């Protein structure tokens, strides 16, 4: 735990990093390193990290492993679990995992990978999102063994003088080495001054938490290196950095993102998670399995051989989808999701669908679909009708002007969205 806040006077007097003594590398350390390296993009600096592991093994003192997430949206998707799974592995190896909620940094907005300034969130939005983040992270991490921190603990007391001292630690030229900043600067796209503060402030989190290892996505590399640099300037042993690949969304093109609507939320319904996973391509399937499955690498390699020999990849994809549903719900939910998927594939209706009561009959089809929550807008409703993607009681609807009288209807949009609607006058 961090017992004090480094103010500007301390920032100005920080010196070089603490030298790391040599510890023998045992077979146990090599085995742990193999687990840590699985699926990672980069491990910087590996020799230093091996020494940290060796020291931990010899002294019995666990490493402090940090993951920071800004609660910029209300839900965590399975793309986030790539780094969360790595944190759980490190936790199971006996190290101290720090789940850092960036409630202060969210007020700035992470510019990583952005081609424009990110709109800041209100304090109220951040607090609501942070609560759901913690609840959903608990589906992956052992929260009884997790150190949960908020970076407003040390950043709010830092004050204006502390921020000015922190800003003196880095130059504009070095900041423009970031690829996204460079592109924006060369393209004459505005960069706000507060965006330059984001990497510094995120890096300062590592100083405050005395982090040994920080885990993040590949898009966070610059920020993670900043933490290492600031620790060195504060006389701390610099953290090592482990970056994990960014998971592509369902389209297989852009990274998974709620704003791009190509995501799978870990709090989604079991049938929704299952159906979305079954929709990914047979090629993208391997990427998902390697990054998300808990199967051994040998098992995955054997599965690839079987598919090359003629085994149906759909069967393997269904097994993987069941694994993920069971992780965030239960084995029983995974079995039901498989049964529902097979039933829908045969043109049937799932056993468990949303029950909704609506008034206003006779109600236009576009209003019924929107009010039932099956589409986000009436224009989207009409688009689905035009594309023959709407069924009522199993019959495809082609009349965009259709009005439904009072009654009970099983309404389907696309392959996965169902509702049993009771419509009243």
TrEMBL record:
Catalyzes the attachment of tyrosine to tRNA(Tyr) in a two-step reaction: tyrosine is first activated by ATP to form Tyr-AMP and then transferred to the acceptor end of tRNA(Tyr). ATP binds at residue 258. It is an enzyme of class 6 (ligase). Its EC number is 6.1.1.1. Coiled coil: none annotated. A motif ('KMSKS' region) lies at residues 255-259. The keyword Cytoplasm applies. Belongs to the class-I aminoacyl-tRNA synthetase family. TyrS type 2 subfamily. This is Tyrosine--tRNA ligase. A motif ('HIGH' region) lies at residues 71-80. Keywords: Aminoacyl-tRNA synthetase, ATP-binding, Cytoplasm, Ligase, Nucleotide-binding, Protein biosynthesis, RNA-binding. CDD domains: S4, TyrRS_core.
């Amino acid at each position: 735990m961090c017992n004090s806040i480094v103010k500007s006077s301390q920032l100005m007097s920080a010196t070089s990093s603490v030298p790391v003594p040599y510890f023998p590398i045992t077979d146990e350390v090599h085995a742990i390193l193999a687990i840590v390296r699985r699926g990672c993009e980069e491990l910087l600096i590996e020799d230093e990290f091996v020494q940290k592991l060796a020291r931990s093994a010899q002294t019995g003192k666990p490493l402090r492993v940090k993951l920071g997430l800004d609660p910029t949206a209300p839900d965590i998707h399975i793309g986030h679990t790539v780094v969360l799974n790595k944190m759980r592995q490190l936790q199971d190896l006996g190290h101290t995992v720090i789940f850092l909620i960036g409630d202060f940094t969210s007020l700035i907005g992470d510019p990583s990978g952005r081609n424009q300034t990110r709109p800041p969130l209100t304090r109220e939005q951040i607090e609501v999102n942070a609560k759901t983040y913690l609840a959903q992270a608990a589906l992956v991490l052992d929260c009884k063994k997790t150190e949960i921190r908020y970076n407003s603990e040390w950043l709010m007391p830092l004050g204006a003088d502390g921020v000015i001292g922190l800003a003196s630690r880095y130059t504009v030229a070095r900041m423009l080495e970031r690829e996204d900043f460079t592109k924006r600067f060369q393209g004459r796209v505005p960069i706000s001054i507060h965006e330059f503060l984001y990497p510094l402030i995120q890096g300062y989190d590592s100083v405050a938490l005395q982090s040994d290892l920080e885990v993040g996505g590949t898009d966070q590399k610059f920020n993670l290196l900043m933490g290492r640099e600031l620790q060195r300037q504060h006389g701390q042993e610099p953290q090592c950095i482990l970056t994990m690949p960014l998971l592509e969304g369902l389209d297989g093109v852009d990274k998974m993102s709620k704003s791009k609507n190509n995501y799978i939320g870990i709090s989604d319904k079991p049938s929704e998670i299952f159906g979305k996973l079954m929709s990914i391509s047979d090629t993208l399937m391997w990427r998902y399995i390697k990054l998300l499955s808990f199967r051994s690498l040998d098992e995955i390699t054997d599965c690839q051989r079987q598919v090359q020999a003629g085994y149906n990849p759909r069967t393997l994809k269904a097994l993987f989808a069941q694994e993920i549903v069971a992780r965030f719900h239960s084995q029983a939910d995974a079995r039901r999701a498989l049964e529902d998927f097979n039933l829908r594939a045969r043109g049937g209706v799932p056993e468990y669908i949303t029950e909704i009561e609506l008034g206003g009959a006779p109600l236009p089809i576009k209003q019924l679909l929107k009010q039932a929550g099956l589409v986000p807008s009436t224009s989207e409703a009409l688009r689905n009708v035009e594309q023959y993607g709407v069924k009522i009681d199993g019959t495809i609807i082609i009349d965009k002007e259709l009005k439904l009288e009072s009654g009970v209807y099983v309404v389907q949009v696309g392959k996965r969205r169902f509702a049993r609607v009771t419509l009243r006058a």
